Amino acid sequence: MKWAEVIKIQTADGNNTSLKKQLNELIAEASHNKEIGEIKLYRNAKVANDLSIHLYWESKKAEAQGSATALFISHLMKEFGLVSHSVWIEDIK
Predict the structure, then answer these.
(1) Domain at 19, CATH number
(2) How far apart (Å, rounded) are the C-alpha atoms in residues 72 and 64?
(3) pLDDT in tens, 9-33
(4) Secondary structure of the chain in the HEC alphabet?
(5) Domain of 29?
(6) Are strands 2-11 and 36-43 parallel, antiparallel or unpaired?
(7) What pTM was computed for the model?
(8) pLDDT tens, 49-76?
(9) Separation between Cα atoms, residue 30 and residue 38, nearest integer Å
(10) In the chain, how many domains are there?
């Protein structure tokens, strides 16, 4: 089953240098997990303070409450601003 997690971070400060550095380190660590297909970091095209991490998984079952990896990242990112985390399952017809 293919599924994804999206972690959105909205910061008050436009200077996200320290946040991006920490996110890149977390992404590098998490990429060693064999079930994760990809991890990508995005920034909003219009709002520089909005960042989004997308984790793409392929496993037998999706974790409806979120993976330990994403929950850990979400918890660490709360010090930088508002964080939302959602889980998405690929809908194949």
Answers:
(1) 3.30.70.100
(2) 15
(3) 998 876 677 788 888 888 888 878 7
(4) CEEEEEEEEEECCCCCHHHHHHHHHHHHHHCCCCCEEEEEEEECCCCCCEEEEEEEEECCCCCCCCCHHHHHHHHHHCCCEEEEEEEEECCCC
(5) 2-89
(6) unpaired
(7) 0.86
(8) 899 999 999 888 889 999 999 999 999 8
(9) 10
(10) 1
